[in-house]
């Protein structure tokens, strides 16, 4: 990635910053960094998952609000500038979403939220390694890695490679991973009544 903005930004300044290009960015140690544009299938999965979760939360009157493409402020190392990730899906608490609705600030995960979902693309190492460590350190209770095309390394999705959803649950400050493939029901601690399989997620790219 190539830095676009030379000025060092705080997280709040970054949320209001716009270079006019229409591109997506993340914040890396105070510097805005451009992101690669997602493929159509990647967007289909993100759209489909967010819509499914939103319907699930509304149907059961759950205290959560799923939203797409939201910035997540990461933990700052003392003395370093701020960083963020633009997550594919963030599930906010309804309380936090209502709080943000009362302000003029940009909607973002200023504090750790219950669930973050990343849909894997060609830079799969970021999702399985770097982001996992960042979200674990941040204290995100649940982190889904949705590898609908089976792109990840064998150590993460097994051999032969196939579409996989990995649910990382925070236990004693460390992620414990459970891997789901095929038509096995995905078990989410946050959404125990959710009926969803990896095959259903893959089908979102074919609708």
Number of strands: 8
Query: What string, H for helix and E for strand, traces the elements in order?
Result: HEEHEEHEHEHEEH
CATH uppermost class:
Alpha Beta
Question: What is the rounded distance between the termini?
Answer: 32 Å
Low-confidence stretches: 1-5
Q: Number of helix segments?
A: 6
Radius of gyration: 17 Å
Mean pLDDT: 94
In the CATH classification, which architecture applies? Answer: Alpha-Beta Complex
Largest sheet: 6 strands, mixed
- Overall domain count: 1
CATH topology: tt1808, chain A
Strand content: 25-35%
**Strand neighbour order, sheet with most strands:** 3-4-5-6-7-8
What's a concise summary of this model?
The protein has helices spanning 11-15, 40-59, 94-101, 124-138, 154-157, 198-203; strands at 25-28, 31-34, 64-73, 84-93, 115-119, 142-147, 164-171, 174-180. It is α+β, with helices and mostly antiparallel strands and 207 residues long. It has one domain (38-203): tt1808, chain A (Alpha-Beta Complex), CATH 3.90.1570.10.
């Amino acid at each position: 990635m190539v830095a676009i903005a030379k000025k060092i930004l705080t997280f709040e300044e970054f949320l209001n910053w716009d270079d006019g290009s229409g591109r997506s960015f993340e914040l890396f140690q105070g510097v805005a960094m451009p992101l690669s544009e997602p493929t159509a299938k990647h967007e289909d999965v993100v759209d489909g998952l967010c819509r499914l979760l939103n319907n699930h939360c509304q149907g059961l009157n759950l205290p959560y609000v799923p939203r797409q493409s939201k910035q997540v402020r990461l933990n700052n190392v003392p003395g370093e500038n701020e960083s963020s990730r633009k997550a594919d899906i963030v599930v906010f608490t309804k309380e936090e979403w209502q709080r943000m609705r009362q302000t003029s600030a940009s909607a973002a995960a200023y504090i750790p939220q219950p669930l973050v979902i990343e849909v894997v693309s060609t830079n799969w190492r970021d999702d399985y390694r770097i982001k996992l460590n960042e979200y674990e350190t941040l204290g995100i209770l649940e982190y889904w890695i949705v590898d609908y095309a089976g792109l990840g390394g064998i150590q993460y999705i097994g051999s032969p490679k196939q579409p996989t959803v990995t649910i990382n649950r925070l236990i004693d400050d460390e992620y414990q991973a459970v891997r789901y493939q095929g038509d096995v029901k995905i078990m989410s601690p946050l959404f125990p009544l959710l009926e969803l399989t990896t095959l259903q997620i893959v089908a979102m790219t074919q609708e």
